[in-house]
Design brief:
single chain; alpha/beta; Metallo-beta-lactamase, Chain A; Rossmann fold; 7-stranded mixed beta sheet; 5-stranded mixed beta sheet; 21 strands; 34% helix; 24% strand; elongated; binds MU-OXO-diiron
């Protein structure tokens, strides 16, 4: 296992998780990486670690450059265990190392590991000299946990951004000029939609603070390092955080005997005919985390379920629970579904919408199998709604 040089005396020493496919509910179809970075200066500094169980890969890459026991500082930019999980092993080897973290990191790491490690607590604007180079810190709480921070290596213009600007993408390529750009951008978008989306204000604040520094390289804690498309990914973050939507309506549903699917297709045809991009997602074959990537830029979110045992289908409930947690703002909602003798699916879906702050535009329900008259009624009603704006 080799380290990968980023710049003179700065190395990537992380671990590649080729086979992870479930990241607490997020389908990571391309795996991921846990990026740790080693800086060789008068003080040997490690930035972040890796997921528990992958420490040996990180240690092998560090050992390619230096004896890990010589590490002086371990910067912990985030407590979540995909980045701090390697601390017990590294601190057991680098016995004199000091952990540098923010106040919430200090609390979180002590609660996680209950170890009597040496901590140095930093806040925004603090910097430490590690020899010729110095590290500055910017606290970025809630991007993604209360303990997140950025570390900035001013002399080399490298921002170690932890979760921000990351992508779940396993690769031996380390830089964005070594890997297909469309895949990196698409995984960065999916990552934002599934991890960062609930925290627009903290992200805005972090972007605002990052504006004041000169960045040549963004080194996140997952996926590919940005050096060619630094401005582009920062611009994309500005766009995503603004909540600006496109002329797009996504239609998400499950169906038992295709009655709800007939309604879904009627809704889709109206959106398509009025100039909307209107992708259709049957939850039997689409993963909710891929659908959330589409929600990121959708003006309308249409959700359908037949009534099943006085409720909605479990796949739809799972999607709506996930959706509610990620809390996209400023979307318009349409609930739809078929029913037999009960009629509970629409109120269940609208309840999720209300709890998510979705502006409910209309609801469509059909008893048993929709015929042409039913679908024509739905089309007429929806068309009126879309054209009366
Ligand atoms: Fe990649 Fe919030 O941890």
């Amino acid at each position: 296992m080799k380290a990968k040089k980023i710049k003179e005396n700065i190395y990537w020493v992380g671990a590649i998780d080729w086979n992870v496919r479930n990241f607490h509910g997020y389908l990571t179809q391309r795996g991921t990486t846990y990026n740790a970075y080693l800086i060789i200066d008068e003080k040997i500094t490690l930035i972040d670690t890796v997921k528990p169980g992958m420490e040996d890969e990180m240690l092998a890459r560090i050992s390619d450059i230096i004896d890990p026991s010589k590490i002086d500082y371990v910067v912990s930019n985030h407590v979540e265990m995909d980045h701090s999980g390697g601390l017990p092993k590294i601190m057991n080897i680098a016995k004199n190392a000091t952990i540098i973290t923010c106040p919430n990191g200090d609390k979180g790491l002590k609660k996680h590991y209950k170890e009597d490690w040496d901590f140095k607590v930093v806040k925004t604007g603090d910097s430490i000299s590690i020899g010729k180079l110095s590290l500055e810190f910017i606290l970025t709480p809630m991007v993604h946990w209360p303990d997140n921070m950025f570390s900035y290596l001013r002399e080399e213009k490298i921002l170690f951004s932890n979760d921000a600007f990351g992508q779940h993408l396993a690769s031996t390529a380390r830089f964005d000029d070594e890997y297909p750009e469309d895949i990196i951008m698409s995984e960065a978008r999916k990552y934002y939609a599934n991890i960062v989306l609930p925290y627009p204000n903290p992200v805005k604040k972090a972007l605002e603070q990052a504006k004041n520094i000169d960045i040549e390289i963004i080194a996140p804690s997952h996926g590919i390092i940005w050096r060619k498309n630094v401005n582009k990914i920062v611009e994309e973050y500005h766009k995503w955080v603004s909540g600006k939507t496109e002329k797009k309506a996504i239609i998400v549903y499950d169906t038992m005997w295709k009655s709800t699917e007939i309604i879904a297709r009627a809704i889709q045809s109206v959106f398509e005919d009025t100039g909307y991009n209107a992708p259709l997602f049957n939850l039997q074959v689409n993963h909710m985390s891929d659908i959330m990537t589409e929600v990121l830029t959708s003006e309308y979110v249409c959700v359908g379920s037949p009534t099943l045992n006085k409720n909605i289908m479990p796949s739809v409930a799972g999607f709506l629970t996930y959706f509610q947690g990620l809390a996209p703002k400023g979307r318009k909602g349409i609930a739809f579904g078929s029913y037999g003798w009960g009629d509970q699916s629409i109120p269940k879906i609208t309840e999720f919408f209300k709890n998510s702050g979705i502006d409910i535009v209309d609801t469509y329900k059909v008893n048993y199998i929709p015929d042409n008259k039913d679908t024509d009624n739905i089309k007429e009603k929806l068309n009126e709604k879309l054209t009366q704006k």
